[in-house]
Amino acid sequence: MDMEQLELNPRIRAAVRRAKLRSVRDVLSCGQDLHTLGLSRSDVQQLLRAAANACRRHRPITALLLHDDPSSLRLSVGCAVLDELLRGGLPVGGVTELSGESGAGKTQLALQLCLSVQYPVQQGGLDSGAVFICTEDSFPSRRLQQLIREQSSLRSDVPESLINSIEFSNNVYIEHAADLDSLQECVTHRVPLLLTRGLVRLVIVDSVAALFRCEFQPSDWLERNKQLISFSSKLHQLSQEHNTPVLCVNQVTDMFSGSDDTLGPLSSSVSPALGLAWANQVMVRLMLRRLQGSVSQGDQHSALRRLEVVFAPHLARDGRDAAVWREGVRGVQT
Question: What does this protein's UniProt record list under function (predicted)?
Fold first, then answer.
């Protein structure tokens, strides 16, 4: 559908013309990158809403319609503040690492993405399910059910009728890997089957460090790195072949005092685990830290967190404060 057919504010229409966005698909392909047109956040939301409504009236948009430019797709984390930091969310077609200390909220954010991926493209999802590979603890099913019940609170931007129509629990596939052999078996056979059948468009490994840390001694670093690179190569292959974001949750290790680690967080005494061999395998490195302060929201209280971009080819090295609520992880407006 041609953009000239939409009823838009003259200021928004002028910006669309300057950017030579001629069709609704052009606009939806840009997604959150529309803020580079010089429009305010409310203008961008109005433009995206108008384009999405036009698609629903004429022809529903799917991820397949945007396949000619997959790099423009993003998987929303379900929060406008954090999506702004990530320019729309996780990139589709690449491996993203989310590291942090225990209790920082890494698994919480991973669960949130398992639900976000199930929304249509217009709402920042990929209209499919997720596979969640556990290597440490049992899958937090009770917390997932709580997040599902609270979706209308987290995603106030989505019609409640749409939220109620999605069977979230049925679209989260759970795998457990107790050792490296079972992990390789999972990503080599079972995960590709789910992707090929179109049942999932998000792969989560929680956590990537657990097995590689426990199965090797320090003197076995060469063999560990070989297996680590083999594993990451398989993740990259799955991501590229199926146009699927892969999220790897990672542990952290203490940093030496005074070290200048450009692959580590902006300001922290810890650094992501597995060293340089693993750092070279990820496209985006994020870190979630737990801060000293706390915040309140109604009857809820949360320790303050901070989500930081450590490195990414398309993002500035920046961060946003966040908190964990009943409905999920949300950015804190400052």
Answer: Involved in the homologous recombination repair (HRR) pathway of double-stranded DNA, thought to repair chromosomal fragmentation, translocations and deletions.
Tokens of 37: 């047109």
Q: Mark out the alpha helices in the chain (DSSP H runs).
A: 10-18, 24-30, 41-58, 80-85, 106-116, 141-149, 151-154, 160-165, 180-185, 191-196, 208-214, 221-242, 275-279
pLDDT of residue 265: 58
Which of these ranges, 11-25, 54-68, 304-318, has the smallest mean pLDDT? 54-68
**Hey, is 98 helix, strand or coil?**
strand
Name residue, tokens 């993203």.
Answer: 96
Q: Which of 109, 191, 118 is nearest to 143 (CA)?
A: 109
Region of 249 (left: φ > 0; alpha: ψ -120 to 50; beta: rest) is beta
Give 246's contacts (C-beta < 8 A, 6+ positions apart).
94, 95, 96, 202, 203, 204, 205, 235, 236, 238, 239
pLDDT in tens, 114-127: 999 999 999 999 99
Question: Would strands 94-99 and 245-250 be described as parallel, antiparallel, or unpaired?
Answer: parallel
Tens digit of each residue's pLDDT (9 = 90 or more) over 236-254: 999 999 999 999 999 999 8
Query: In whole angstroms, what is the distance from residue 32 CA to residue 35 CA?
Result: 6
Domains in the chain with CATH codes: 3-58 (1.10.150), 67-331 (3.40.50.300)
